[in-house]
Write a structure and sequence with these properties.
about 290 residues, about 45% helix, about 20% strand, alpha+beta
Length: about 290
Amino acid sequence: MTRERVIKTASGWPVLVGQLVLAVICGLVLYWSIAGRSTPSAWGLVAGSVLALLWCFLMCGFFTLQPNISAVLLLFGAYKGTTKDTGFRWANPLLTKEKVSLRANNLNGDKLKVNDKRGNPVEIAVVVVWRVADTAQACFDVEHYKEYVTVQSESAVRHLATKYPYDTGETEELSLRGSLDEVSVALQEELSERLTKAGVVVDEARISHLAYAPEIAGAMLRRQQAEAIVAARQRIVDGAVGMVEMALEKLERSHAVELDEERKANMVSNLLVVLCGEREASPVINTGSLYT
């Protein structure tokens, strides 16, 4: 792996002042070699031309860097270092300066159709926040680091979807829909491992879209509705049984009425019908005794 080496570059302002002085000297030499002479001085013309070429050469070394922008410096293909000094700078004009952004980037992934752990086709998309941490690795260890991030993110999402089911209902198993925080952490860890080679750090990775594929969406919706109905019924029955138990306990403590086991069973049945029924109960009033 190529490792980043941070180097310092010279401020451009002192060099610019030196360039102005050099320009004045070059102009004076050329003026001295021509003015007041019937034949221009060959040595003066040569010296002035050399100074002019030197001035042009040194002018090629100026460049600017904004905050969170770095420049990778190459000398005839050899990596010499990375500068992160912002502002007006100057470096060897022979150095090739390739700018690399250190700012955070958002990758809004496309919707992918993948199979979850149970083989159900689902649509999934993620948002990844990433930034370059090692400019040397980003430039030299992979071909195009931005494309590399895109491809590896898609591969990580496909691999992650096969490790979790879309939904687990009432079980404690992790799922894509019910455990978004845990799944996001797992996705971020896998992406960080994959993108280390490119010198990229993943700050955040989250699922932005999750749904069943259209061909099974209707069937899965009916299954979810059935599971919801069963869960609701279970909750209603649990509450009704608790209310019946409470009613029997209060009657026994108050001694308001004595019920044998058969009448208790009848009372429990009637209360459960009233509490668990979908429609309002229509009571039948008994005008006789309790046992008729």
